[in-house]
Amino acid sequence: MSNKATKKAICILSGGMDSTLSSYIAKKDGYEIIAVHFNYGQRTEQRELKAFRDICSDLDIVNKYEIDIPFFTQIGASALTDESIDVPVDGVESGVPITYVPFRNGIFLSITAAIAEKEEAQAMYIGVVQEDSSGYPDCTDEFISDITKAINQGTKETTNIEIITPLVHLSKQQIVQYAKELNVPLEHTWSCYKESDEACGVCDSCRLRLNGFKLANIKDPIPYKV
């Protein structure tokens, strides 16, 4: 058993506000962080990669993985990975939004579990948000609990991984406030689904983010078109 000083956590870090705060919480929890980022053909892939690298530098993370998952663009079915489907900007979708990428978190967690097993990490952090998310089925407590069980079932007996979701029951307002408390460099994060130079301000992700800042009475430090 590794001693407490060297407990390791793999943080799934997209470069967005939620995953960045999660990584800062992992640091506060005393873990040595190994960061994992996925390039999966999303519209803002290059901008998210820049955010990931900036945040790794802020957190002094040396051990990091940048993983390419090209097949999401092959299957399409999501406005994030299929250029022929427009990203909705009117905020009136009901049910699972068109920005949902099929089983994305399940695939991310499976790949991360393989890395965790290799690195002998005890935990994986993911910034899923249940109540204030866009209604994605792979962001719930129940899903995380079931996939944790499956991962531990399908790995070596000596592998015992806990999936930690520190934000799952927080609102975007609480996330902004918590990030402020931990001095998270929010100016390095990127949330927009559509644009890479200035955030669009009208997609679901921008709306949720801007509303969180507004309710927290804090100014969002990134540039917006609208």
UniProtKB/TrEMBL annotation:
Belongs to the QueC family. HAMAP family: QueC. Signal peptide: none annotated. The keyword Zinc applies. Coiled coil: none annotated. ATP binds at residues 13-23. This is 7-cyano-7-deazaguanine synthase. The gene is queC. Its EC number is 6.3.4.20. Keywords: ATP-binding, Ligase, Metal-binding, Nucleotide-binding, Queuosine biosynthesis, Zinc. Gene3D superfamilies: HUPs (3.40.50.620). GO terms for biological process: tRNA queuosine(34) biosynthetic process. Catalyzes the ATP-dependent conversion of 7-carboxy-7-deazaguanine (CDG) to 7-cyano-7-deazaguanine (preQ(0)). Pfam families: QueC. Pathway: Purine metabolism; 7-cyano-7-deazaguanine biosynthesis. Zn(2+) binds at residues 192, 200, 203, 206. It is an enzyme of class 6 (ligase). It comes from Poseidonibacter ostreae. The lineage of its organism: Bacteria, Pseudomonadati, Campylobacterota, Epsilonproteobacteria, Campylobacterales. Binds 1 zinc ion per subunit. The keyword Metal-binding applies. GO terms for molecular function: ATP binding; ligase activity, forming carbon-nitrogen bonds; zinc ion binding. It catalyses: 7-carboxy-7-carbaguanine + NH4(+) + 2 ATP = 7-cyano-7-carbaguanine + 2 AMP + 2 diphosphate + 2 H(+). InterPro entries: QueC, Rossmann-like_a/b/a_fold. Its cofactor is Zn(2+).
